[in-house]
Amino acid sequence: MSCFDFLHIFSGKHSRNRKKKNHIDTDIDTNNVATMGQGAPLHRYEGGRQFHGNENVAYVLPNDVEEDDRLHLQHWTIKLAFGSSFDAPVQTALEDGTNVLDSACGPGTWALELANSFPNSNFYGTDISPRFPNNIKPKNCTFLVHNVIDEPPFDENFFGYIHQRLLLLGIKAAEWPGLLQRLKFTLKPGGWIELTEFSYCNWGNLGPCTKTGNEINIQILGDAGFDIDLGSNLARLLAEAGFTNIQSRAIDMPINHSGKMGELFWEDAREAFKSLNHIYSKIKPEFKDPEVFAKFIEDCGEECRNNKTTLPWTRIIAQKPLEVDI
């Protein structure tokens, strides 16, 4: 199925409301999972949406069916915006066969797409929630529940390529150096890592409504310890972690204008914004009124269309240095 087939499917309104290292358990029965990690509840519910229940998990967005739909749509929107599913020079390695990690994979859309395209490679997806398919999937694709801030369940130098994206809302600023070191540990010398993130700074053409929304985001995320300018800081973080050959590509993502891509990205952003009203209403109590909040979102979308508002996104690749014998 092509990118545009998926875009067609998801562009409408959604209707669905350490074992031994390298031993991956793929038989997770999500219907029977009630707790995860020291008896912590797997889920909590806010505003009619399902969220991760472990208070040690920083990820602020939901982990329900509606969110999975949004992430499927987001995958194809990103592919359309950047013109590809990856930038790292790994085409030949993927064709010949290598181990690939999709870190914090969500419902696994990226891993599933590439596993189908590169049957000689083995793809591993990890996420804090068991939200990925465990039966209907390519044979070369394996998923497991894992929090990326914990010690990796893989051996040193196991992967030839690591992909990770959009964890600005899931990893706090102080956790990024340790996370990159853990990913580097599992990456082979000469292997590539690829990250895609955005920034709440340096928007293009903000109007009064979107400026208000962005100020709320910055206040909430900044107070919680997240890096609101993560997209701009990736190169520095990778260099400090010891990666080399760092190359980045930035785009200004259109919001609700400039054709299909802008429309799809607005749908993505709108659904994410709606899912967090229980947080936004703590800053602006008037948002507790559903009609007021819905009108605010509608005004933001119209404003973005009229002002040609954009949000800066960065895709960056880097290489683990080759080991040198002394």
Describe it:
The strands form two sheets. A seven-stranded mixed beta sheet has the order 5-4-3-6-7-9-8, with helices on both faces. Helix 1 crosses helix 2, helix 2 packs antiparallel against helix 8 and helix 6 crosses helix 10. By secondary structure, the chain is an alpha/beta fold. It is globular, with a radius of gyration of 20 Å. Helices cover 37% and strands 20% of the residues. The N terminus is likely disordered. The termini are far apart. Strand 3, helix 4 and strand 4 form a beta-alpha-beta unit. It has ten helices and nine strands.
Give a brief rundown of this model.
The protein is of the alpha/beta class and 326 residues long. Helix content is 37%, strand content 20%.
Major sheet strand order: 5-4-3-6-7-9-8
Number of helices, where a helix is a run of at least 4 consecutive DSSP H or I residues: 10
Largest sheet: 7 strands, mixed
The radius of gyration computed from the alpha-carbon positions, rounded to a whole number of angstroms, is 20 Å
Indicate the mean pLDDT. 86
Helix content: 25-40%
**Global shape:** globular
The multimeric state of the shown protein is single chain
End-to-end gap:
50 Å
- Outline the low-pLDDT stretches: 1-39
**Structural class category:** alpha/beta
Number of strands: 9
Q: Approximately what portion of the residues adopt beta-strand conformation? A: 15-25%
Helix-strand sequence: HEEHHEHEEEHEHHEHHHE
